[in-house]
Amino acid sequence: MKTPTPLVLDLIDAIGEEAVVWHDEDLLVYEYDGTIDRGNPDVIALPANTVDVVSLIKIANKYEAPVTPRGAGTGLSGGALAAKGGVIIGMNRMRRILDVDPENKTALVQPGVVNLDLGSEAERYGLAYAPDPSSQRACTIGGNIAENAGGPHTLAWGTTTNHVLALELVTADGEVQWIGHDTRDEPGYDLVGCVVGSEGTVGIVTQALVRLVPRPTAVRTMLAIYDSVRQASNAVSAVVASGIVPAALEMIDKMTIAAVEPVLNTGFPLDAEAVLLVEVDGPESQVEAEGARVEGILNRFEPRELRSATDPEEREHLWAGRKGAIGALGQIMPNYYLLDGVVPRTQLPDVLDGVYEIAERYRLPVANMFHAGDGNLHPCLLFDEREPGATERVLDAGGEIMRLCVDAGGAITGEHGVGLEKRDYLPWIFTEADMDTMKSLRAAFGPTENFNPCKIFPKGHGCGEAGHQHAQHQIAKFGPKAFV
Amino acid sequence: MTIAPSPLDSESIWMTEDRPDAGELGLCVHCGFCLNACPTYHDLGVETDSPRGRIALMRGLDDGRIEWSPRVQQHFDQCLQCRACETACPSKVPYGRLMEATRAEAFAQNRWPRRQRVFWRLIMHGLFPYPGRMRLAGYGLKLYQRTGLQALVRKTGLLARLSPRLADIDSLSPVADRPFYTNNEASQVKPTAPVRARAALITGCMMPLAYPETHRATVRVFTRNGVAVNAPNAQVCCGALHAHGGDVEAARDLARRNIDAITPESADLPDAILINAAGCGSHLKEYGHLLRNDTAYSERAKAFAARVRDVHEYLVQIGFAAPEGRVERTVTYQDSCHLSHAQNVRSAPRDVLRSIPGLTLSEMRKPDKCCGSAGIYSVVQSDISKRVLAEKMEDVLSTGAEQVCTANPGCMLQLDAGISRFDDDSQMMPRSTHAIELLDESYRLGDAAGNG
Lengths: 484, 452
What we know:
The complex is a heterodimer.
Chain A: H1 6-15, E1 20-21, H2 24-27, E2 43-45, H3 50-62, E3 67-70, E4 87-90, E5 97-101, E6 106-109, H4 115-123, E7 127-128, H5 141-147, H6 154-157, E8 164-171, E9 176-180, H7 191-195, E10 203-211, E11 213-214, E12 218-226, H8 229-241, E13 248-253, H9 254-264, E14 274-282, H10 284-300, E15 305-309, H11 312-323, H12 325-328, E16 335-338, E17 341-342, H13 348-361, E18 366-370, E19 376-377, E20 379-383, H14 390-407, H15 426-429, H16 432-444, H17 469-478
Parallel strand pairs in A: 2-4, 3-4
Antiparallel strand pairs in A: 1-2, 5-6, 6-10, 7-11, 8-9, 8-10, 12-14, 12-15, 13-14, 13-18, 16-20, 17-19, 18-20
Chain B: H1 22-26, H2 39-44, H3 51-63, H4 70-77, H5 84-88, H6 95-108, H7 114-125, H8 131-146, H9 149-156, H10 158-162, H11 164-171, H12 184-188, E1 197-201, H13 207-210, H14 212-224, E2 227-230, H15 240-245, H16 248-262, E3 272-275, H17 278-284, H18 287-290, H19 298-307, E4 308-310, H20 311-318, E5 329-333, H21 337-340, H22 347-354, E6 359-361, H23 377-380, H24 382-398, E7 403-406, H25 409-422, E8 433-434, H26 435-451
Parallel strand pairs in B: 1-2, 1-3, 3-4, 5-6, 5-7, 7-8
Helix pairs in contact in B: 14-26, 20-22, 24-25
């Protein structure tokens, strides 16, 4: 029988037995998130309020235990994994929507609130919470803030950082700070902007004041089916170049259709090479005018078929095919490795060609479903981890695809964060001096070394032996040459 | 001294053919989309009690990484098997099947506490499979209620002091104020429209005692729509509770008896095998899977399962006559988990309700979230069940509905317990009802108006 460590006993003392998970078999379910990396925590603590978070951090500090914040564990870069063990602080029990202010269009929420739950609450006031990651049914606002989450509809509205006004933050030394302001424009440094996207490395957010946006009065979703990825990519470039900012502009390719169609019956033809989903919203007249213009542009690239839906149910049906895409890949292969690269939109056609070429060379099926309008690619390599060497191959191919994005003038993450997964690629886009500056910023928040260690910064930058061997392998292969 | 090898030393933790399928376990990509759909994750706030977490535990057992401790068993036991996670799952992981397989192993390996095993054998082997004994118990309940003993017990809180568990059972007991249903009644109601189909009605173990009027309404509704209904006498409990609990051998035995009773080899198959209890319906549709390795029955089980229809599903499939009597009432509809998540029947009951003149359907925010009934869960996991119910009742009461209707007897019992516990309005909500009873009410009001 395992006996609790002094750390565990102190945590239990602070927040109660039923809020602390420490038995081996239970820890097993906290070793993963939505991707293929693993981390082994020593203990999970589940605070009920800010005061609990403060005590937990102080106890962790006493034992010099690493602290890793976790929301719903749906992340895609290993951000919520306990890379160096220690304490996972699970924020999922702090899930109250404290206030919705329809006049000022804001909501005050705890970090464990599920993205979609905030969305449905806002809907009662005719408002919406704009960032809508595909995992929105489960992911939390706290996790969204940590990763600066995006989503199909952030093309027009911007990612999470554009929607957070103020934060209550518990710092690494256990101080509670409010940063930001409920007005839109705060004098001084944009501290909220520093915290959003910091991947849990500077503190734990315990409350957030977020912006809500008006729900559009009219929405039109267009579906264009193309016989080649290049035609579809060119159509994307043309829409973007036209000056119209669609609410969403998404592409899914043939492999994705093959996964989605049998499960969701979205009506995507199985022999089509690419499908574009374009949404315009706003007042009726604007939707009418912009919709017609977008249709004109899409038609120029000779789609096999162009459909348009304004009925909410029909629209939701079309979107189901996009939002359910990732999970549906399990239909084809048991494992996937989802990449998150971003490239200038004009580079899309060439980079996509490159992605297919790399996947073929590594003998890996690849499915693409992504935010084309943002140039945010999500190539998804499919494999079976039980096949010897498959994981190696996937990580190698992934590294090469990331390199391709960087070489095309892009970057290694659009919205999933760097996390554990891509930290060793950071030198591809930043110099040592850049990274040192970032570390000074992190240090400005307090003694943060034990806060989500091994994330963002490459191995050798404050994280002991634990690291991502495969990424190391990539560095050896392609050289640590900084892109800038 | 020799030490007995632990199960971890042998090749596999699984001991029977009913084990969770490794390929199906592999379908889970731990994306976490299921978390927020899971009532126990929502209630307990730990991933060990989430669908993704329980699958990780099953895999951990499968890989030999963890021991099957009482703690692991508890996480399995705390699952409601509502299968809301299957609706949320983009990879279509057959979670319900995996959980049943895990429970089958747990049952075969005697992983329950002794008291629970004794209780199970007493009730599930000694009572439910025997319609006669069930009826006897029903008369006992009637007596208990008619003599005023139940009222007294509830008023004094005596039972709660003696045994909280018994008090829970008491609060969940149906009101046995109607004559029990007998299977002979069904074929005595002759179709009033030209006969276009022949159906067998599964009356079940508890429904004839707890909700006999639902059966009467079902038969009236179908005969009016040209479906000749009979309820074969030799039928027994469908075995859903047994299978959900992992007692698959008992479930198989009951399934074989029902296949013989409803679809004897000597007769043609009925056009439909009708069921008005969602939990039973979803299990009846699984008979093919349950008996897949039974050479004598596998084909018959498949044919049987293919004919099973939930009553709403079948009404919409064949097209039902528009009801004309006005039922001026605002109702809300609780999706039974085993109808919505397990059978994917969501619109049919709503189509039925919306066809009723005068009736307003006021939807809950989360109509397809479990009410906490979940078979015998409300008794064996009463604390979680009560909290899940409390949340459900908040949703029900916020709709402004005058009555709540659903499609499964367990949900009706649970919601009734919820109404008496949480509706502190002086104008207490009436007991819950089955959607088909509302349709029947409208038909009958229409008839009365036509005759008058």
